[in-house]
Amino acid sequence: MTIKVLVVDDQAMVRAGFAALLAAQPDMEVVGEADDGERGVALSHEHGPDVVLMDVRMPVLNGIEATRRLLDPPAHITHVPRVLMLTTFDIDDYVYEALRAGASGFLLKDALPADLIAGVRVVAGGQALLAPTVTRRLIEHFSRTAAPPITNPPRLDVLTDREREVLVHVARGLSNTEIADALFIAEQTVKSHVSRILGKLGVRDRVQAVVVAYETGLVSSGRSS
């Protein structure tokens, strides 16, 4: 299956470089390029890409607001792409806001070509592009700004005790293998729990589950409810 990609970046050389690299892949097609978020949203609605590579800082409409519009489109737009954020900066407030807006992950602009190609494939396949080590750094930031812990977050009532336990570990940045070791269960069982957690919370991937865990107060700096 061919992955359709839209590249949105205000730097012409960066945009052209990414587009050329991805277009050279046998399983990818670059359906458009845009130099600002507003144009990116318009082209996405027009071409229906599977993945949008979205810069954070752009004129006219920044990448965060563009991501919100893409993931919450007007009623007549039925296609919703996955968004992979691009940033020059290693984890900043803009990136956190992008993840809250629904982005499936992010890459630094100086990532290796192989990492960019792999990242597009990962996101197109429905997974989040956020390694456990990156998740931990996200958590360090989130823990300074998230709500204080509460005993019974209402949104989490749909989860079983075991699912809450797994979510806490996910939010702490543990991989499936690490969670399996911590809870003395099979890795496949962890995968099943994570899948059910995502479905029950109505979130698209692991990144959004981490956001929910912190925003509901289930997890906070150094402790969990």
From TrEMBL:
Q: Name one Pfam family in it.
A: GerE
Domain spans labelled Response regulatory: 4-124
As stated in the Swiss-Prot or TrEMBL entry, residues carrying the post-translational modification 4-aspartylphosphate are: D55
Q: Where would I find the HTH luxR-type domain in this sequence?
A: 152-217
Coiled-coil regions listed in the entry? none
Ordered alphabetically, the record's keywords are:
DNA-binding, Phosphoprotein, Transcription, Transcription regulation
The protein's superkingdom reads Bacteria
Which PANTHER family does the UniProt entry name for this protein? TRANSCRIPTIONAL REGULATORY PROTEIN NARL-RELATED, TWO-COMPONENT RESPONSE REGULATOR
What this protein is called in its record is Response regulator transcription factor
Q: Which organism's genome codes for this protein? A: Saccharopolyspora erythraea
The root-end lineage is: Bacteria, Bacillati, Actinomycetota, Actinomycetes, Pseudonocardiales
